[in-house]
Amino acid sequence: MSKKVLIITGDAVEALEVYYPYYRLLEEGHEVTIAAPKKKKLHTVVHDFADWDTYVEKQGYLIDAHASFAEVDPAQYDGLVIPGGRAPEYIRLDENVQRIVRHFFEANKPIAAICHASLIFETMPDVLKGRSLTAYIACKPGVEALGATYVSDNTVHVDGNLVSAHAWPDLPAFMREFLRLLQ
């Protein structure tokens, strides 16, 4: 049965973390809307792990945002995907993002958060209190400050309606778990 899934992001989203879920969901026959601060072409970035102590960033492809956050009625959607990259660090300040994400937690609908997506939750500390999740390792202090347990022994973790993952190399298992919850 076809579901409606919302992806929330913005410029500097990690390319693989937005494209892979988008096309995977379309492949399964779901209707997918990408929302951003405004309806426009978004710039993606590619994060890779070279010989550096941290990841390197390069420009990626463009992808269309189909709607602005202000236009989104989260009650119309069955699931939510939050990609990482640098987008979460600034879209988390948008009151509409907080409204949208809070709806999915309160309605107990499937939420998929990968890599730096956990930064979104820092503006809503109550939604993660007592929960467990994983994220990119640099996000661990923020996760723990929210009163959540950071899971380090698995790169993909499921806690109720929340699927979380470290980074783009975990996309196959991440999407498999999210699709399972979406059914």
Description:
With 183 residues, this protein is of the alpha/beta class. The chain has a single domain (4-182), classed as Class I glutamine amidotransferase (GATase) domain (Rossmann fold, 3-Layer(aba) Sandwich). 28% of the residues lie in helices and 28% in strands. It is built from 6 helices and 12 strands. The protein is globular, with a radius of gyration of 15 Å.
Note the main attributes of this structure.
alpha/beta; 183 residues; three-stranded mixed sheet; DJ-1/PfpI; Rossmann fold; seven-stranded mixed sheet; 28% strand; DJ-1/PfpI family protein; 6 helices
What structural class do the secondary elements suggest?
alpha/beta
CATH structural fold name: Rossmann fold
Give the DSSP E fraction (strand runs of 2 or more residues).
25-35%
| Tally of discrete structural domains | 1
> What is the helix/strand order?
EEHEEEEEHHEHEHEEEH
- Report, as a whole number of angstroms, the end-to-end distance: 8 Å
The largest sheet has its strands arranged as 6-3-1-7-8-12-11
Mean pLDDT: 96
Describe the global form: globular
Family: Belongs to the peptidase C56 family.
InterPro entries: C56_PfpI-like, Class_I_gatase-like, DJ-1/PfpI
Protein name: DJ-1/PfpI family protein
Domain DJ-1/PfpI: 3-180
